[in-house]
Specification:
Helices cover 49% and strands 6% of the residues. It is mainly alpha-helical.
Amino acid sequence: MGTCVSPWITLHPGEIRIVSQMVLPMAAATTSVTVNANHEVIDQELANEQVQIAEGQRVLGMFPNFYSSYDWNAPPLGARQKFRLAFRSMMDPMAFAGAAGIAGFEQYYNIFPAYGGGVGGYFKRYGAAYTNDFSSRMLASGVFASLFHQDPRYFYKGTGSFQSRTMYAVSCAFVTRNDAGRIRPNYAHVLGVFAAAALSNLYYPKQSRGLALTLINGAVETGGNAGSDVVREFILKGITSHAGGKP
């Protein structure tokens, strides 16, 4: 408010005097509103959206392609989303079908003969094959990916020469980006697959257990991951439904 000072006015008893209208200027006032975004909630929503996109990606509308990202700048997954996607991938019917195929191959060539033949031998091989896949996926893409804050997805390159794209795809089995987008050694995958390979000594036949089993299973899983990344880079995008969340 402004200030007005008038001359002295003397009033006698019973006297009334009207003073001319005075207008006081109003002080200028500023009102501001500050809106603070809850970044934690936003990050969770973006991560959940990434999982929904991944779960919609299927090769030929049938085979899961959950771990391919076609957005180079995709937001990172949180620990909860990493575990959710890993578990979802292992509960997919194709995961059970894949283990059944491996068990059939091993049965046909009598790999791990101590399991025996017939239906009993087949189901022992099936249980071992599925447990291998389950433990490897949960440890590499869930546990260690969360501990090391690394992204378990393969990020599609799509540009460059055939050689550069092949080298990039193979290298992703050994290097990956962390949740901040920086390239780091792929501790999550390497530790995950070899830890799962070590666990396989608990359920494979006694005659087959040992360091060799751990190294062979870990190496096979790592090589398989490198090969699948090459397939992701050159083949899967064109035959994947809803690739990158596109209808």
